[in-house]
Amino acid sequence: MAAGVRGLHIPLVTPFDEAGAVDLAALERLAEEVLHDGADGLVALATTAEASSLDERERDAVVAVCAPVAADRGAAFIVGAGTNDTRTTIARHEALAEVEGVTASLAVVPYYVRPTEAAIVAHFQAVAERSPVPLVVYNIPYRTGRALGAAALLELAATDGIVGVKQAVGALDVDTLQLLAQAPADFAVLCGDDAFLLALLLMGAAGAITASAHLCTERFVALVAAAHAGRVDEARAHAEALLALVVALFAEPSPAVLKAMLHDAGRIATPAVRMPLQAASSAALRRARRSAPGRSSGPAPARARRSPGASSQRGRAA
After folding, report:
1. What is the CATH number of the domain that holds 56?
2. Is residue 134 part of a domain?
3. Is there a catalytic annotation at residue 138?
4. What digits encode the pLDDT tens for the residues 118-162?
5. In terms of DSSP H, where are the helices of 103-216?
6. pTM of the predicted model, to two decimals?
7. Cβ-Cβ contacts under 8 Å for 188 (sequence gap 6 or more)
8. CA-based Rg of the chain, rounded to a whole angstrom?
9. Distance from chain centroid for Cα 34
C-alpha cells in the first residue's frame, strides 16, 4: 500500500475575506484544526479549493501556507496540479520541486476536450515521467466528461510514478471493484465520493479524499480507523450518522454549503465562493445544520493528542 496516501485526507476550502481576497490566516487555522482532529493529510488546490478561480499568485500562497502545517505534524500533503493541457500540467508538476514536503500531486483527468481513454493514459504517463513527485490520478467523469475504466486504471497503476487514484464515479461500480481487486498492493485507491466512503473502505480502499470531513473530522477519522480494523458495526454506525450531513453538503454546488457551515461555526470569516459559483441558500444551510451529528464519543487520535494546534479549541460545527 502507498503509505503516503493512506487514510483520510481533507481537500481544504479556500477561505475568502470580506474584500474577496484569500484569507490565508483562516486557511492555516483550518489546516491545523483538521490535523489536530486526526486527519492523515491535507490536499491543497483541489476542486473544493475553487482552484480554477485562483490566480497563480494565490495558488502559490495557498501551497506555501499549507505545506509547513502538514510538515510540522508529519502529515501527508497533496497538491492539485492537473489541467486539461498536458504542457501546463507538466509545468505545474515540475514547479512542485520547489515545495518541501509534497507527498504527491492530484492530477485530474483532462476535462472539456474529451480525449480517448488511451490518450488520457498517455497524458498521465507523460506527466509522471517529468514530475518530481508521485501522482494521484483524479477520476471524476461527471466533471470531466471522460471516465477511466478498470483496464486504463490498472495500466496507470503499473506506471512508475503513479501511486494512486481518487475514484469519484458516483457509485461503487464494477470498474471500481475490479480495480480494488487487481491493483498492486502499493497503489492506493482513495474514495472521492463521500457517501460511498465505507463501501470502498470495506472493499479494500486505502483511504479517502473527503471534503465533508472539514466537519465532524473525528467521526470521519473514527469511521476510517474502524473500517480498516475490521470493526464493521462500528464503522457502519459512523457512516450512517454522517450520511445525512454528506448529502446536505452536496445539495448545492460544492463548496458553497460547506463554506456556509464553516462560516456558521465561526471557522472562516465569510461563506463566500467565487463566481460563477453562488453562495449557499439559507434553506441549504438549515438542512446541513440539522444533519450534523454529534462528535464521536471515542478517544481522540493519538497524533492529535500529541500536537494540538493553537486554534484547535475553536468552536466546531459538530
Report:
1. 3.20.20.70
2. yes
3. yes
4. 999 999 999 999 999 999 999 999 999 999 999 999 999 999 999
5. 117-130, 141-144, 150-157, 174-182, 197-202
6. 0.90
7. 1, 2, 5, 6, 136, 163, 164, 165, 206, 207
8. 18
9. 12
Q: Do residues 214 and 258 lie in contact, with contact meaning Cβ atoms separated by under 8 Å?
A: yes
pLDDT at 303: 40
* Residue 307 is assigned to a structural domain of this protein: no
Q: Which of 111, 112, 142, 166 is catalytic?
A: 166
The answer to whether residue 243 sits within a structural domain is no
CA geometry: angle 277, 278, 281, nearest 5 deg: 145
What's the domain count of the chain? Answer: 1
Catalytic residue among 112, 138, 142, 259: 138
Task: Examine residue 68 and say whether the peptide bond preceding it is cis (omega within 30 degrees of 0).
Answer: no
- Alpha-carbon dihedral of residues 62, 65, 71, 77, nearest 10 degrees? -10
Summarize pLDDT for 186-198 with one digit per residue, the tens: 999 999 999 999 9
Supply the range of the domain harboring residue 12: 3-231
Domain membership of residue 271 (yes or no) is no
How long a stretch of residues is the chain?
A: 318
